[in-house]
Amino acid sequence: MISDLANELAVVADGAAADKRVTFGTWPARGFTLLEVLVALLLLSLALAALVRLAGLDARASAQLRESTMAQWVAANVLAETRLRQPLPAIGNSNGETTLGGQRWRWTLVVNATDEAGIRRLDVDVVAVEAINDKDGVAAHLTGFASRP
Fold it and tell me: Fewest 10 Å CB contacts: which of 8, 10, 26, 145?
């Protein structure tokens, strides 16, 4: 009787040990291979690099848009001030400097005659003072007209 109980315990112990043994041929594969992980990391790094570049381009575009908007406001202010000072400005060139948005701007106003004697064409070019030496070109160009009241 005791030997039968010992035999049963040995069989149960062998069965439990057999259940815990790992055999590679019978278990389904779990996890990824090293090659799969490396390919996934490569794809992830390419995607992250593209996102960083896109964020940089977006920041640069935002700064250019802000500068362009400020320059357009400066040009519109120059046109409005010219019309208010002289309803029919004299033909010729003038220039000046102003500050808007914490930035200095240089503007050039060209007044030309038109086919109508009582109308003048006003062309304003605006450049950021800091960008003059960088040869970035004109930040804004605005054309308007002034007439005799």
Answer: 26
Q: Is 100 left (phi over 0), alpha (psi -120 to 50) or beta?
A: beta
pLDDT in tens, 26-55: 666 688 899 999 999 999 999 999 999 999
Altogether, the residues listed in the chain come to a count of 149
Place of tokens 């010729």: 92
Distances from the Cα of 131 to the Cαs of 75, 84, 103, 116, 139, in angstroms? 16, 29, 11, 37, 9
pTM of the model: 0.65
Q: How many domains does the chain have?
A: 1
Residue indicated by tokens 């019978």: 26
Q: Which pair of structure tokens corresponds to residue 75? A: 């040009």
CATH number at residue 51: 3.30.1300.30
